[in-house]
Amino acid sequence: MSRVTLTQFLIEQQRNQKMIPADLRLLIEVVARAVKTISVHVGKGAVAGLLGNAGTDNVQGEAQKKLDVVANEVLLHANEWGGHLAAMASEELDDPSYIPKTYPKGEYLLVFDPLDGSSNIDVNISVGTIFSVLRCPANMEPTEEAFLQTGRRQVAAGYAVYGPSTMLVLTVGTGTHGFTLDREFGSWVLTHGDIRIPEDTKEFAINASRSRFWEPPVQRYIAELQQGADGPRGQDFNMRWVASMVADVHRILARGGIFLYPLDEKNRPRGGHLRLLYEANPMAMVVEQAGGAASTGREPVLDLVPQGLHQRVPVILGSRHEVERVVAYHAE
Ligand code: AFP
């Protein structure tokens, strides 16, 4: 059986589709290699002594897990010497990470959440890595300001999910494609070409323990889903919540669904829960490229103009018709 690897897929995008330049292809391959290394660390878990807290806090004031630190280091070191990057920004770092003077610089900016869903590490549940690639604006130093571009300007985005198998889901603006890691051969194999999210769904994902803080449009939407066949929707819905955004989004790409981390009374002072640059934008591009939708409830995520590297926003994404319904409830 002939298998299309990530390298072949990217060369095809570069050569025939003229969608990506060679240095962007290289950048994505380096990220994919780093993700393989992270997958090995995640897979070893307790055997390598990698469970538990690192004893440090990140810029968000959250306790860092040992694997957060390891995954961050792997991505930084893998990407700093290739010559394709101007700078990197990580959810785990206060400021952008600049390319050491000893290495050549390129035109791209790499943004990542090295280990998303890290509260799941110690209980052996799926976690992931999320990444986004921007171009550094011409004549601009790669300081924080250079990263503050709308999600529409992303030239590539994706995530890896470390589950029963490790998968890399990627978009370069020509649809969303999934690659599975063949552990014996060490290669990424295209297993899920041109993923399409069903427009309708019977599944929703939300942290319902926060329901008393939700705004009225979200209260109404979820109440209608919970009323099921006896309510205005006239059908039953099922609920899922992994608490790893990568795993929840991956399920939605595979079989549809809606994911909500909305604005609520508790997270309002911070603007929401999920990080715009590290989580919301890359996932919104992946979802839109798969035919789904991503909104804050008030505007498309990808249209937001970032105000800071670590800005948080509300996120509602997944099956198009359900996201549109939640947006309509907000408009009312
Ligand atoms: P961590 O990476 O800090 O564990 O956060 C995970 C996350 O940002 C996202 O992946 C989940 O969807 C969400 O937070 C889970 O939030 P709850 O703790 O409210 O379930």
UniProtKB/TrEMBL annotation:
<keyword id="KW-0479">Metal-binding</keyword>
<feature type="binding site">
    <location>
        <position position="115"/>
    </location>
    <ligand>
        <name>Mg(2+) 1</name>
    </ligand>
</feature>
<feature type="binding site">
    <location>
        <position position="113"/>
    </location>
    <ligand>
        <name>Mg(2+) 2</name>
    </ligand>
</feature>
<comment type="subunit">
    <text>Homotetramer.</text>
</comment>
<dbReference type="InterPro" id="IPR033391">
    <property type="entry name" value="FBPase_N"/>
</dbReference>
<protein>
    <recommendedName>
        <fullName>Fructose-1,6-bisphosphatase class 1</fullName>
        <ecNumber>3.1.3.11</ecNumber>
    </recommendedName>
</protein>
<feature type="domain" description="Fructose-1-6-bisphosphatase class 1 C-terminal">
    <location>
        <begin position="197"/>
        <end position="330"/>
    </location>
</feature>
<dbReference type="Pfam" id="PF00316">
    <property type="entry name" value="FBPase"/>
</dbReference>
<feature type="binding site">
    <location>
        <position position="91"/>
    </location>
    <ligand>
        <name>Mg(2+) 1</name>
    </ligand>
</feature>
<feature type="domain" description="Fructose-1-6-bisphosphatase class I N-terminal">
    <location>
        <begin position="5"/>
        <end position="192"/>
    </location>
</feature>
<feature type="binding site">
    <location>
        <position position="116"/>
    </location>
    <ligand>
        <name>Mg(2+) 2</name>
    </ligand>
</feature>
<dbReference type="Pfam" id="PF18913">
    <property type="entry name" value="FBPase_C"/>
</dbReference>
<feature type="binding site">
    <location>
        <position position="207"/>
    </location>
    <ligand>
        <name>substrate</name>
    </ligand>
</feature>
<dbReference type="InterPro" id="IPR044015">
    <property type="entry name" value="FBPase_C_dom"/>
</dbReference>
<keyword id="KW-0378">Hydrolase</keyword>
<comment type="similarity">
    <text>Belongs to the FBPase class 1 family.</text>
</comment>
<dbReference type="InterPro" id="IPR000146">
    <property type="entry name" value="FBPase_class-1"/>
</dbReference>
<feature type="binding site">
    <location>
        <position position="279"/>
    </location>
    <ligand>
        <name>Mg(2+) 2</name>
    </ligand>
</feature>
<feature type="binding site">
    <location>
        <begin position="116"/>
        <end position="119"/>
    </location>
    <ligand>
        <name>substrate</name>
    </ligand>
</feature>
<dbReference type="GO" id="GO:0042132">
    <property type="term" value="F:fructose 1,6-bisphosphate 1-phosphatase activity"/>
</dbReference>
<dbReference type="InterPro" id="IPR028343">
    <property type="entry name" value="FBPtase"/>
</dbReference>
<feature type="binding site">
    <location>
        <position position="113"/>
    </location>
    <ligand>
        <name>Mg(2+) 1</name>
    </ligand>
</feature>
<keyword id="KW-0460">Magnesium</keyword>
<comment type="pathway">
    <text>Carbohydrate biosynthesis.</text>
</comment>
<keyword id="KW-0963">Cytoplasm</keyword>
<keyword id="KW-0119">Carbohydrate metabolism</keyword>
